[in-house]
Model the fold of this input.
Amino acid sequence: MRRLALLIFVALALIAAYFYRTGTVPLRNAAANPTLVEEAPIDPNEVRVLSALDAEYARLVDAVVPSVVSITTSRTVRVPYVVDQYDFFFGRRGRNRTAEQTQSGLGSGVIVSKEGHIITNHHVIEGMDEILVQLTDGRIEPAELIGSDKGVDIAVLRVKAPNLKPLPFGDSEGVRVGQMVFAIGNPFGLQETVTQGIVSAKGRAISDSGVELLQTDAAVNPGNSGGPLLNLRGEIIGINSAIYSRTGAWAGISFAIPANTARQTMEVITQTGGKVVRPYMGVVMMDIDRRLADEFQLPDSRGALITDVIPGSPAQEAGLQAGDVIRTYNGHLIRNTRELRRRLLASKVGEEVKLGVIRNGSELELAAKPAEMPDDETLLRVPPAPNPAQPAPEPRQSGRATPGRGVDNALAGITVSDIPERLRGSLPENVPGGVIITQVDPRSPAAGLRVGDIIEEINQQPVRSVGDFDRLAGAVQPGQRVLLFVARGSTRSFVVITP
Done:
């Protein structure tokens, strides 16, 4: 037994001596001294374009990041008091009691002036009691709210701090789809986050504010709101504002307020001491389809069709009328009502603008001076309109069916009456006359009309009574399209009826 142990010991000693002399490491320690590769697989000279692009990306980011700030907001709210077991034990009651709670929020902003003006989104600071701005060098400064415009979603802040580095605005009008852009901000509280993409589309409207947004595929997440969208020159071409997502996180579609809109809003806010002043023309408009274009003798369906003009408004003073089609605004072609609203928002109050108009097939040029938008957002003070779902007003006494028309007549199946005096007081003030529809055959070409609608014109001829309606309707030829001017509630619109 001793001899066997001695033999094993000698064998182990010989094996250890072998590994020591040869420098070989046992398998279980093989990873202790790895052999590393020192040379890159690609020579930078072989990818010069990519190397230059990589360096230029980093240079651009280094130049613009100091101008982007993180915004922290907070407010104190009262919430229902939560009753616990100790409240009940000690006789305290939580009914109708409230407790204070602090709510906080995150956002981004960009410095745009040497005086410390910062642009961000209105929704970032809305309703907040305290606004703090953190600069990229670590400084945290209290911010003063100069003013904000909820409709455009732009707010202007100001910090009093030295050594600020503002960024310039670019011309968002000249932005092209496919152009490379960078978004910088504070998503999820991760400061100085940079994402890159392209401009995916222009002229996106995701609300009825009239602001047409830039669409980009640069990643934007909660906390990015208010941060800049930049071009390759480091200019601000947009303010990141919203995303399209089913989950609340980025899904490849982001929206930014164009820089021209943001700049004009900022200038108004700073010049008026924080008051929001929007230009106002005083027109109600509708888009034009191919059928309306034919009826109004237009070469195409571009433009904004005026359906109403507010009394005493700049539009009325300029001579605009219902039925006019605005085709150009200061020489810029108007495609639709959204573009006209955008051009109007970019105008200054009191500054004359030139309107290219088509009226009855003839071209006109009118001059208008947008005024300050009235405080009354409805602009038209009108009483409630008749409820179309109500029974027809006295159809057997005052109703009159359209005489002897076949199904090839556009106005077949409509029954109208003169407007009863008891209903005139409930009609909008902007509807001076017409006849009221008391019945519509659902099989008729005009089935889209409703009981209670007011027909004011047929083929641009006024309808003041049932007699006018019968005369004009009787002149409609079989198979002929008819252009009606209809009031439904306080809304007036042109409708083409096709048999």
Notes: The two ends are 117 Å apart (CA to CA). The chain is about 20% helix and 30% strand. The first strand starts at residue 68 and ends at 80.
